[in-house]
Amino acid sequence: KVALDPANSVGVIPAVELLKDLGCKVVLVNGEVDGRFPGRHPEPKPENLKALSHLTRSSGADLGVAYDGDADRSIFVDELGRVHWGDKSFAVVARWFLARWPGETIVTPVSSSSLVKEVVEGCGGKLVWTKVGSVVVSHKMMEIGSKLGGEENGGIFFGPHQPVRDGPMSTALMLQVMVEEQRPLSALMDELPRYYLLKASVRCPHELKPIVLEKLREHFEHMNPLTIDGVRIWYEDGSSILMRPSGTEPIFRLYAEAKSEGRVEELLGEHMKLVEGLVGEAERGARRP
To answer: For domain 196-287, is the CATH number 3.40.50.10490?
Structure first.
């Protein structure tokens, strides 16, 4: 049984047909098609999925799934009603995928969790990073012949079907994983490596972003940083941080990850101070005659 929240989008039509063809019983919330999205905000964030979480538990569903407004991204809810962000569901699919296509290359944007890196490399796969953006992931998959891509926001690209995000296809993949593994989604999620994530931002005028970004690259050059979109570095304990200028706002975004709460707080604090210092330095330089 699948509990489905399509956010009143047209995605309900193919999703319900597909699930019924797969032999699933379907229970719906926000299932009436209405482009005004009256049931909930179309972004499938955990805070918007309380109704789906309750429906999944109360109906005895094996799986809950929520789509965004155009149904190309899927956020999954386990049978206990817990909402899982896209990095975790992608890691579950990636592990299943690599057991069937050993050594394959998987594509993901630089904003994805280190969880994906640990799972893919631990299963003998290769990981290719891209700039943030679903179109970039799709193009890279086609360029290198990759069969699987994924994003932290719930986008999964399954090449044998089509190398673009597809919510109903992602749902079918997750069901396939659960059937073959003969385990509930909660168990599949709980056995994944655990990471703690913190996000923050630092004010930075648009015109100073290139200067600060170059200073960050120079500062971390000895650590072989990933610089395809911002600057991302990994430490020996597995923790990592991404420092990336926003494309729309006058800020630098920071995404810190670690395997303990204390470490992730320490990591974020250290690098916020670094970025703030570089912004201040750039501002002073800009004021000099």
So the answer is: no
Q: Is 227 helix (H, G, I), strand (E, B) or coil?
A: coil
Q: Domain locations in the chain?
A: 2-84, 86-190, 196-287
Helices assigned H by DSSP within the chain:
12-21, 50-59, 86-100, 114-122, 134-144, 167-181, 185-190, 209-219, 261-287
Could you give the angle at the alpha carbon of 46 between the alpha carbons of 40 and 51, nearest 5°?
A: 50
Query: What is the rounded average pLDDT of the residues 47-73?
Result: 97
Q: Which CATH class is domain 86-190?
A: alpha beta
Cβ-contact 51, 29 below 8 angstroms: yes
Q: How far apart are CA 263 and CA 154, in angstroms?
A: 26
> Identical fold at 2-84 and 196-287?
no
What is the pLDDT confidence band of residue 19, given thresholds at 50, 70 and 90? Answer: very high
Sort 112 into a burial class: Cβ within 10 Å, 0-12 / 13-18 / 19+. Answer: buried
Spatial separation of the C-alpha atoms in residues 221 and 49, rounded to whole Å = 42
Q: How far apart are CA 111 and CA 132, in angstroms?
A: 7
- Residue 285: pLDDT over 90: no
Report the alpha-carbon distance of residue 287 to residue 221 in Å, rounded. Answer: 27
Looking at CATH, the fold of the domain delimited by 2-84 is given as Alpha-D-Glucose-1,6-Bisphosphate; Chain A, domain 3 (3.40.120)
Q: Kindly report whether the global pTM for this prediction surpasses the value 0.70.
A: yes
Phi-psi region of 195 (alpha: psi -120 to 50; beta: other; left: phi over 0): beta
3-state SS record for 130-191: ECCCHHHHHHHHHHHCCCEEECCCCCEEECCCEEEECHHHHHHHHHHHHHHHCCCHHHHHHC
